[in-house]
Automatic annotation (TrEMBL):
Gene3D superfamilies: 3.30.465.10, 3.30.70.2740, Vanillyl-alcohol Oxidase, Chain A, domain 4. GO terms for molecular function: D-lactate dehydrogenase (cytochrome) activity; D-lactate dehydrogenase (NAD+) activity; FAD binding. One of its GO terms (biological process) is lactate catabolic process. Keywords: FAD, Flavoprotein, Oxidoreductase. The lineage of its organism: Bacteria, Candidatus Joergenseniibacteriota. Residues 32-264 form the FAD-binding PCMH-type domain. Its cofactor is FAD. This is FAD-binding PCMH-type domain-containing protein.
Length: 546
């Protein structure tokens, strides 16, 4: 009996092998493609349990059989791609609720952030780690990638907001995971079940290598690379939720997440800073950081040009018609004249506080901090004025994907993070590598975190272009590691960066990652080839060529 037919006998949900579905699920927003054998849309959690048990029982006779969970499919690393069974969590596992006092949301993995945002728009509570791709992303991927975005500078990324996770593990059972006291941990360790086993073995591993694990914690403010072993056990509390967050579905399948919400600040202002060159950016960022901005974002002139060229689409995203939206940019036209042309970079400095007085004070502090630098800047208080920039910043990657002809976005060095103080030395070395390989890029990102999105534009039909990816990735990642940074701050490892985890963390810590994978997934059924067991060769063989 074919795999499709066998799965239909055990599942309530759809089992799909039609060409259109397989083609759709062969891609995310990365540079890879992998055609699944079958796509399953589980009706409920019992379906996922049945899937896990089926794959476990048949793994010996079919070694390549595996399960890869997928929610929104907006991943940029190849994380939800598989040549076996893809589990579509968006079709049915898409329910959420906000608690009665509005301080947390409990959500299934297939809930799209846009739907949550629409329902909670009138509330003063926000889910602040939302990514720039918030109109495309679903909560499953957001949790499993440890997502972050424009408000992460102040509030932190996904893992800081995870209160409780429900996961289906390798034994086919669903368990709830939250932070435990040492006494509660001891009770879990006593259980004579698979749950008890993973607690015992993981605690022993973390305790026996405690100092090495804590020393391996990346020194940057954002990280989505590897397994966050250093956040699981600090000898005061034990939290498997921190291990699962950012694990890309390699240790089990997420079924529910309880996430903390953040009260929105009632007053805000935005300062847009215009640069004639890259030279002053690092010093300006470091001058502004001490004043606790909510956001400190940057995008380059190429992104701005795309925004101008396709302004009708940007206007629509901003909920406006073209002409009124375009007129909002008249002050920027005047500033452009003062610069004698297009600014090389635009920095967005967002201030958000509980009082107008505090906002005004911070605006004046920022004015003084900016005055020594060769930049122009403008202060905005009206929401519609501020929104025009945020829509352009958030839509930058989509504009590139949809409108650059002859070339396409190739995200492979798109998400590194370094200490902001190191940017004056780091950026020239990075740009030297790109110039050596004649790679044109668009640059945007979270400048306050030192997290830059460098997105090359390349013609993937040309073998000469595809051949640049591996050597450039290796050189850039080595440079990032040299500066003590992370090779991925929020987009995670996936197919593109998993092969370089040993480079980032060293043999010993990578070996602990492998041991954690064996503890939770002894048969290797969950999203293989991500985090551990990855190879550059497999990634390069699965490049999209169009």
């Amino acid at each position: 009996m074919m795999l499709r037919d066998e799965l239909k006998t055990i599942l309530q949900g759809e089992v799909l092998t039609d060409e259109e579905t397989l083609q759709t699920f062969s891609h995310d927003t990365s540079l890879f493609e992998a055609r699944p054998e079958v796509v399953v849309a589980p009706k409920d959690r019992e379906d996922i349990k049945a899937l896990v048990r089926y794959v476990s029982e048949h793994k010996k006779e079919s070694p390549k059989l595996s399960l890869t969970a997928r929610s929104g499919g907006s991943d940029m690393s190849g994380g939800p791609l598989s040549e076996s069974i893809v589990v579509d969590c968006a079709s049915h596992l898409n329910h959420f609720s906000v608690d009665a006092v509005g301080i947390s949301v409990t959500t299934e993995p297939g809930v799209f952030f846009r739907d949550f945002e629409k329902e909670t728009r009138d509330s003063d509570m926000l889910f602040t780690p939302y990514p720039a791709s918030k109109d495309l992303a679903a909560f499953g991927g957001m949790v499993m990638n440890n997502c972050a975005g424009e408000k992460t500078l102040r509030y932190g990324q996904m893992r800081k907001f995870v209160e409780e996770l429900k996961m289906i593990l390798a034994d086919g059972e669903e368990y709830s995971f939250r932070a435990l006291s040492p006494q509660e941990l001891e009770e879990k360790r006593k259980l004579q079940t698979f749950e008890g086993e993973v607690y015992r073995k993981t605690h022993e591993l973390l305790e026996s290598h405690f100092d090495e694990i804590q020393a391996a914690r990346p020194k940057v403010s954002k990280n989505a690379s590897g397994y966050a072993l250093w956040d699981v056990w600090d000898r005061k509390r034990f939290d498997f939720g921190q291990l699962f967050t950012g694990s890309q579905g390699t240790l089990g399948i997420l079924t529910e997440a309880k996430l903390r919400l953040q009260k929105e600040k009632s007053h805000e202002a935005l300062i847009s800073v215009f640069f004639r060159s890259w030279d002053a950016l690092p010093e300006v960022v470091n001058a502004l950081l001490p004043f606790d901005p909510e956001s400190l974002e940057v995008f380059d002139s190429e992104t701005l040009k795309l925004g101008i060229r396709f302004m009708p689409e940007i206007a629509k995203k901003a909920g406006s018609s073209f002409i009124p939206f375009a007129l909002r940019f008249l002050p920027e036209v005047v500033m452009g004249a003062k610069l004698f042309g297009m600014p090389k970079l635009i920095l967005l400095y967002q201030i958000a506080e509980d009082s107008e007085e505090e906002v005004s004070r911070k605006v004046e502090v920022a004015r003084k901090a900016l005055s020594p630098f060769p930049v122009l800047f403008r202060v905005m208080h009206e929401k519609r004025e501020m929104d025009k920039y945020w829509v352009m910043r958030r839509e930058s990657f989509n504009l590139l994907r949809q409108h650059v002809r002859g070339k396409r976005t190739i995200p492979f060095i798109d998400d590194f993070c370094i200490l902001p103080k190191d940017t004056p030395r780091f950026l020239p070395e990075l740009l030297k590598i790109l110039k050596e390989y004649q790679i044109k890029v668009n640059i945007a990102g979270h400048a306050g975190n030192g997290n830059f999105h460098i997105v090359p534009l390349m013609d993937m039909k040309k073998e000469s272009e595809r051949a640049k990816i591996q050597p450039v990735a290796e050189k850039v990642f080595r440079l990032v590691v040299q500066y003590g940074g992370s090779i991925t701050a929020e987009h995670n490892d996936g197919l593109i960066r998993s092969p370089y985890l040993k480079m980032m963390y060293g043999e010993k810590i990578y070996g602990l990652f492998e041991e954690v994978k064996r503890i939770f997934d002894p048969l290797g059924i969950f999203n293989p080839g991500k985090k551990t067991g990855a190879s550059v060769e497999y990634a390069m063989e699965h490049l999209r060529k169009g």
